[in-house]
Design brief:
Length: 427
C-alpha cells in the first residue's frame, strides 16, 4: 500500500472502547490529587484527565476524530467541531472553515481546555464556523507512523523532524483533508506561536497554498527570534545542534518536558509558593512566563493535564538556531554535506517570506518573551501581503495569555473574529 497524501479517514462520534486520558494524567494526580482536593473541584480534575474528544463531548458539543497519513508516513490526528451547541447548530449545513494550529509542546487541547466560554474552538463554533484543530507529528495525538516507533531505544528516526516538516508536510495534508471533507475551497487559519511558524514555512515553500487561505490570524507570531530575551532559550541557543546530536547518541529524539532538569530549573528560579511552584516546574511557563493578573489558577490542573504534549528535540533546536543566527532559515543539519544533501546548498536557505501572499493579521503583545515586537516588525516588513500588526491592549499580556488569559475573549478573540468575518464577505 502506498501512502500518498491522505489515506486514512476515521470518524468517531462516540467514545472509544479503551478510554484514552490526557497526556499528563499522572502529573495531575501527583500535583493536584486527593491531598489537595479541596483546592480544585472534581469537575476541574476531570477536565484535566479527559482527552480532547471526550472533553468536547462533556460540554455537549459535536466532535469528530479524523486521521490523516502524510507522504512520509506520519499519522496525524485532527479534531473537528462541525457546528455550535447553542447557536449555528444545524448539522450538515455548509459553514466557513477555520483551521486551528497549536504551538510548541502543545496540542489541539489549547483551543478547548479553558471551556466553552473562553476556548476559541467553542467560540468559533458558536459564531458559525466549521472548526478543525490540527495536531503536529510527534505530539500526544499524532505519535504514530506506518513503520517507525517513537519509543524505540535503537533508533530515533521517528523524531528526525523540526517545524520545517510540520509546515512543509503536515499542514498541507491536514488542510487538504479539512477542505475536502467540508466541501470548501478555502479556509481561515489561526496559528499560535509555532502554529504561525509552520504556516510561514508552508506558504513560503509551497506558495500554491496561499490560494487556499481566506485569512491568516497569527497569535503571538514567531518567525524571527533575534531579539529574544528569554534566559533559558538564550542559554540553549548556541548549543542547539550539539544538544540534538548528544540526545540522538543516547537514544533520545523526543524533547522531554517533564524531565528532572526542568524540575530543577523551576525550583532554582522560582519562589517556593503553593500555587506558583508547580508553574515554574512546567517547561511551558518557564519559557513563556506567566501573567498573575490574567492567570486563572483554578484551571491549573487542566493546563498541566494537557500540556506539555510532546515534541521533537529538533523543534526546539530549530528555534535555537534562529536565536543564535538571527535569521529565519530552514533547519541546519550541522554539516555542509548534510545541508547540501537536503537543500542543495552548504548552508540552510532562508524562507522567502515575500511568497507568503495570503492576507496575514499579526496579533502581538508588549510582554511576549518569545515574539518580541522588533522581531514581529521584521516579519511584517518581509511578508508578501500583511494586513497589519494588531497590538493586544494590555501591557502585561504575554505568550501564554493568547490561549489562557482570563479576559482573552474581549482582549483578543473578539477582534480576531471581527476581522475573519470581514474577510468572509470578501472571499
Amino acid at each position: 500500500m502506498r501512502f500518498q497524501g491522505i489515506l486514512l479517514i476515521c470518524m468517531f462520534c462516540f467514545s472509544f472502547g479503551d478510554a484514552r486520558s490526557s497526556p499528563n494524567v499522572e502529573v495531575v494526580r501527583t500535583l493536584f490529587g486527593n491531598d489537595k482536593g479541596a483546592r480544585y473541584s472534581n469537575n476541574v480534575i476531570e477536565d484535566a484527565e479527559l482527552d480532547v474528544p471526550d472533553l468536547i463531548r462533556k460540554y455537549g458539543y459535536p466532535v469528530e476524530v479524523h486521521h490523516v497519513s502524510t507522504p512520509d508516513g506520519y499519522i496525524l490526528e485532527m479534531h473537528r467541531i462541525p457546528h455550535g451547541r447553542y447557536a449555528n447548530n444545524r448539522p450538515n449545513s455548509k459553514k466557513p472553515v477555520v483551521f486551528l494550529m497549536h504551538g510548541l509542546l502543545c496540542s489541539s487541547a489549547d483551543w478547548v481546555m479553558t471551556g466553552p466560554k473562553l476556548g476559541l474552538g467553542y467560540i468559533l463554533a458558536e459564531e458559525g464556523y466549521d472548526v478543525w484543530m490540527g495536531n503536529a507529528r510527534g505530539n500526544y495525538y499524532s505519535r504514530r507512523h506506518i513503520s517507525l516507533n517513537p519509543d524505540s531505544f535503537i533508533s530515533t528516526q521517528f523524531w528526525k523532524f523540526s517545524w520545517d516538516e510540520i509546515g512543509n508536510i503536515d499542514l498541507p495534508a491536514m488542510i487538504d483533508f479539512s477542505l475536502r471533507r467540508s466541501g470548501q475551497k478555502k479556509l481561515h487559519y489561526i496559528g499560535h506561536s509555532q502554529g504561525s511558524t509552520a504556516f510561514f514555512v508552508m506558504t513560503s515553500l509551497r506558495p500554491e497554498y496561499n490560494q487556499k487561505i481566506i485569512s491568516m490570524q497569527a497569535l503571538a507570531p514567531v518567525a524571527y527570534m533575534g531579539h529574544n530575551k528569554n534566559p533559558l532559550l538564550l542559554a540553549i541557543a548556541p548549543f542547539a545542534h550539539e544538544l540534538v546530536t548528544l540526545a540522538s547518541l543516547i537514544g533520545i529524539g523526543e524533547f522531554l518536558p517533564n524531565s528532572r532538569v526542568f524540575t530543577w530549573a523551576g525550583q532554582t528560579f522560582c519562589k517556593d509558593e503553593v500555587v506558583f511552584q508547580p508553574i515554574c516546574s512546567n517547561i511551558l511557563f518557564l519559557i513563556g512566563g506567566w501573567n498573575e493578573q490574567q492567570l486563572n489558577t483554578t484551571l491549573l490542573p487542566v493546563k498541566f493535564g494537557h500540556t506539555p504534549a510532546g515534541a521533537a528535540a529538533r523543534q526546539l533546536a530549530h528555534y535555537g538556531q534562529g536565536i543564535a543566527g538571527k535569521e529565519f532559515r530552514r533547519y541546519d543539519h550541522g554539516s555542509r554535506l548534510a545541508n547540501r544533501r537536503a537543500y542543495g546548498t552548504s548552508t540552510p536557505p532562508k524562507y522567502d517570506l515575500s511568497k507568503v501572499t495570503a492576507p496575514v493579521f499579526l496579533h502581538y503583545s508588549d510582554n511576549d518573551p518569545l515574539a518580541e515586537i522588533e522581531d514581529v516588525e521584521i516579519l511584517y516588513r518581509e511578508l508578501g501581503n500583511p494586513v497589519g500588526m494588531f497590538r493586544v491592549p494590555l501591557a502585561t499580556f504575554n505568550h501564554l495569555d493568547f490561549l489562557w488569559a482570563i479576559d482573552v475573549r474581549t482582549l483578543l478573540y473578539d477582534t480576531v473574529i471581527y476581522y475573519m468575518k470581514t474577510m468572509n464577505e470578501d472571499a
